[in-house]
Every structure is written in structure tokens, then in C-alpha cells.
Write a structure and sequence with these properties.
This protein is about 30% helix and about 25% strand. The protein is built from five helices and nine strands, in the order H-H-E-E-E-E-H-E-E-E-E-E-H-H. Helix 1 packs across helix 2 and helix 1 packs across helix 4. The N and C termini lie far apart (about 65 Å).
């Protein structure tokens, strides 16, 4: 038989919820569809789980390139965007040469004794609030620059049962088993079965994380000691 020639398989939120509910024996295999209330509670648990996962690591598909125009004498820049939860890989390009800018913590920024010094920026602090995000540079730009950086984008919510998860399809089992483990106490699954689901969920997520890492060759070049 010939292969299909297609690469469009995906599980929508409803598929993930049904599979998870079957694993906690809330609905029988091939049986009745879950109630609206069951779907609503499972959707809440699924979205909460996905948000918590983003605290554990950076997903490659949640990275995006961006630029920001820096103005001489201005240290603070409002980059408020509900989708942006972090930045990395910051640099300024001058005459074809890239100068990296280190992302620092609030404590590091507060420890800088003279924050008004002007020069080519070397450090940046991302100050996140619930409704506002600000980039603060040190040094304060001494002329106009263009910042190039990578944004870490928040994964999209699943608002409708027909929404695709904001994950590659290879994460399907991790989502199903993770949700099943999250729902298990609500459906009075025996402790030993909850433990099994916990182990399975952890294994599926670890495998998915490993499959999502960048692939590259590490080159080590020895340097002669002076």
C-alpha cells in the first residue's frame, strides 16, 4: 500500500480531553461523549497545566525574533505585550559587528551605582508587571541603536474544543497523560493507578522535551597555552 502523502494529523483540545477522561475511566472507550461540565473542567485543567509547563523550560516554537529602536538618552522602553514572557539573545549591530547585551536580574540592575551613564548598552533588565513590561538599559544609549533580540512567547490558550494545542503533534501523548494525571484525583482513581499515571505522564513529557531540543554539532577546539 502507498503512504498517504500527508502530514496534517493533529489532536484538537476535545480529542485530548476525551483520551484523558478515558484513561481515568470517566468515560468508556468508544462510549458516550463527556458532558459539557466535564469538558469545561478538563479544559481548565489542561490550560493550567500548559501554562505551568512553560515555567519548566523554553519551547523552541515559542521563540520569535524582534527588533527595537533605541534612542540616545532614553533608558526605558515599554514593550507591553501579553504574549511576551521573556527575552534572550540580545545584541546591537554596529558597522557589521554584533555586540551582545546581557539580560540581568532586578537585583543586578539595582546594584549598578550610576544608572545614568551613557555609552553603548551592555546590559538590559526586563521588568514585568501584570499589565506592563519594560526594558531598561545600562548603559543608557549614547546614540541611536537597533536592538535585535529573541522573545519568549507565551503559548496560546485553548478556548474552544476545536482549538489545536500550541504544540507540535509529537507532544500529543504528553498532553493526554499529563491531563489524565491532573484529573485522576477528581475521579477517585485508586492511588496505585494515580502513581502509574504520574510515572507515565513524566516519561511522556521527558520524551517530548528531548525531541524538541535543537540539533547541532558541538565543536571543541584546543587552544595552545601561552
Amino acid at each position: 500500500m502507498p503512504v498517504s502523502g500527508s502530514w496534517d494529523f493533529i489532536l484538537v483540545q476535545q480529542d485530548i480531553i476525551k483520551a484523558a477522561l478515558r484513561k481515568v475511566k470517566a468515560i468508556p472507550p468508544g462510549g458516550d461523549a463527556p458532558s459539557t461540565a466535564m469538558e469545561s473542567e478538563a479544559s481548565l485543567a489542561l490550560n493550567s497545566m500548559v501554562m505551568s509547563w512553560q515555567n519548566e523550560g523554553i519551547f523552541l516554537w515559542a521563540l520569535a525574533s524582534d527588533t527595537l529602536n533605541l534612542t540616545a538618552g532614553v533608558a526605558d522602553y515599554d514593550i507591553s505585550n501579553v504574549k511576551v514572557i521573556g527575552i534572550q539573545n540580545c545584541f546591537i549591530r554596529v558597522d557589521g559587528y554584533d555586540y551582545p547585551i546581557r539580560v540581568i536580574t532586578r537585583d543586578e540592575y539595582m546594584s549598578i551605582p550610576e544608572k545614568s551613564l551613557q555609552a553603548r548598552p551592555e546590559q538590559v533588565y526586563l521588568h514585568r508587571e501584570l499589565a506592563k513590561s519594560t526594558l531598561t538599559f545600562w548603559y543608557v544609549p549614547d546614540t541611536n541603536y537597533t536592538l535585535r533580540y529573541t522573545t519568549i512567547v507565551r503559548l496560546q490558550d485553548m478556548d474552544e474544543m476545536t482549538n489545536n494545542p500550541d504544540f507540535p503533534v509529537e507532544w500529543s501523548e504528553a498532553l493526554i497523560y499529563g491531563l489524565a494525571y491532573a484529573l485522576a484525583p477528581d475521579y477517585d482513581l485508586p492511588v496505585e493507578e494515580q502513581d502509574r499515571l504520574r510515572r507515565d505522564a513524566r516519561e511522556k513529557k521527558n520524551i517530548a522535551f528531548l525531541g524538541s531540543k535543537e540539533v547541532g554539532n558541538l565543536r571543541v577546539t584546543p587552544r595552545r597555552r601561552q
